[in-house]
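hey so i finaly got around to running the thing on ABC transporter substrate-binding protein PnrA-like domain-containing protein from Streptosporangium oxazolinicum. pasting the sequence first so u can double check i didnt mess up the copy paste, my clipboard has been acting weird all day
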Amino acid sequence: MAAYHRTGRVTAALTACLATVALAGCASGDATAPRAASPAPAGTGAKTDGGTVPEGQPDVNGDGKVVIGVLSPGDINDKGYYQSFVDTAERFATSKGWTIIKRGGVNTSEALSAARALCGQKVDMVALGAADLRDAIPASEEPVCADTAWYVPSSDNIPQTPRIMLSTDEADQSLLAAGYAAGLLMKEKGETKAGFVTGPEVDFTTTAARAFRAGIRLVVPEATLTVTYSGDLNDSAKAKEATQAQISQGVKVVYPYLGGATDASAELANANGVLTLTPGTDRCASTRPTFDVSVLFSPGDYFGAALEEFAEAKLRMGVEKVWRLGVDPFPTVRICEPTPEQEKRLETFIADVGSGRIDPKAEVKRLGS
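ok and heres what it spat out for the 3d tokens, dont ask me to read them lol
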């Protein structure tokens, strides 16, 4: 699904937006005080950067095994944002002989009790699948979660604390690049009308729409973007209704910035010869539906990097990692079947964002309205 970016991303969407495409754990359930953080391993810079590495990582609670607990507010079988997070955890855990405890569809009102329950099962990490579950964070300070690490997708209203690691990106970057890629395809076909279908009209979706519009206009200055807020990221019927309405208005590109309803929208776009993009994951190989652009800001990609550090006893609490387009492997954008010129122009654009030659915030302000 769409991820929730820094602005409240469901990250996402994407972040879905999703932005897009969302994380650490709780340990023993006894009432002892947390163990003191160990010095950072040589070269990690954990102490000097203000963070600390929990003692014993990855077996933070010292019980001889490693257990990762994952809580997700959405459908962990959505083939998108939420599923990518869980799939990454399962693949990594299997490769290391670790155990995964996962729970999807967690309501925000249940976040705190769900986190406590994970800690009661002696997990070493509680991983939140999206910033929606921020109400779980106080459990990180409670005795039941004394010896745990926490990985948390960030948003503007989540304060940094010494007991959690925050992971975030800049929605303007990936969505501006998504629009730029769509603009390249539209220019080749001589098209000027694009559509954006998403769920509720909230900060992360409105931010994503503005950035997507700005990116298109960097290539096709006269382009228009029709935005439809269906009210629900996962309701396929509403997504199809919104997509059909946009197609009837003549749009030739539709961005389903959705969760579980992504495929329903994309299949309708396919049936009408309309180009479409992914909200967070790489689905260029997908055959039903097909996608023309993969916009990659999946929480699973970010989480995988964090788990690598966790396995190496380098994952620091009390810090925030900001993933940057053109600097880190993710976020990024791929045109699935680009011409050589399109591929070169998109690569140059992404590199220019990474180097600072292009300021996404300034471009969104200039062209996003």
